[in-house]
């Protein structure tokens, strides 16, 4: 049972993983309207990584790690951030933020199936119900003309799914990998390496870099909020909650983030919410609930935006 003095901090931390993570879809959508996606995500994570290293040093933590730990953090940074996040930001140029959030809410389903395929983990009966509902929800979500408003929307849908596979594999990888024991150091290396790799991806595909002096005010605000709140505050809150409350309660952000993203996309960007999307959301999130009822997915706790 938690100390009552911790209750305000716990409430604030839940607000962070519910609302802040839910809002990152909107913020990325705003920023990617002016900035190239890989450049955008790279700046976000490089700056956040440097800030986290600064915090670690101010806390008196050593940032020295072994060669194996460095390699593992680079791989995790690529799976989670360079590919897992960068590809989603790219897809937001062609699909609505609320649609992307709904598709990504199927992440627990992807992790569960990957554990079954790669690790031979038996799927529990309750989770089987969740798998069926999840597949139904995904089918209803993508099988509607309302979401294909851009010629590259189908490619965006496929790439978001590919990003989900990267997150799922990364979630399984970090469960057994030799990583720095200190959270700030581990996260700092992942963010910095993931951001640098994103810059490499940006140069490789020939993205146009918009000088900071030419950024619109909305782009500045979106980037600042993504760095400070989306990459540092919410992630720190997430790890704090894992220490003070049950993982099942922390995982409820899986249900809330898409709802927050849908509302914010509708309110600020006038993104439509078709009836079929609402039905798909209800079925998909119910499936995620059934999957989370039996906590079998060790990687679920690692999935974040």
Question: How would you characterize this protein structure?
Answer:
The chain is mostly helical and 305 residues long. It has one domain (4-302). It is built from 13 helices and no strands. It has helices at residues 7-32, 37-58, 67-83, 86-91, 97-104, 107-119, 125-142, 153-174, 183-204, 217-244, 247-250, 253-269, 275-293.
Q: Can you describe this structure in just a few lines?
A:
Helix content is 73%, strand content 0%.
Bin the helical content: over 70%
Uncertain residue ranges: 296-304
DSSP strand content: under 5%
- In whole angstroms, how far apart are the ends? 29 Å
What's the mean pLDDT score? 86
User: How many β strands by DSSP?
Assistant: 0
Radius of gyration: 19 Å
Number of domains: 1
From the helix content, strand content and strand pairing, which structural class follows? mainly alpha
Tally of contiguous helical segments: 13
- Sketch the topology as an H/E string, one letter per element: HHHHHHHHHHHHH
Morphology = globular
Characterize the main sheet: none
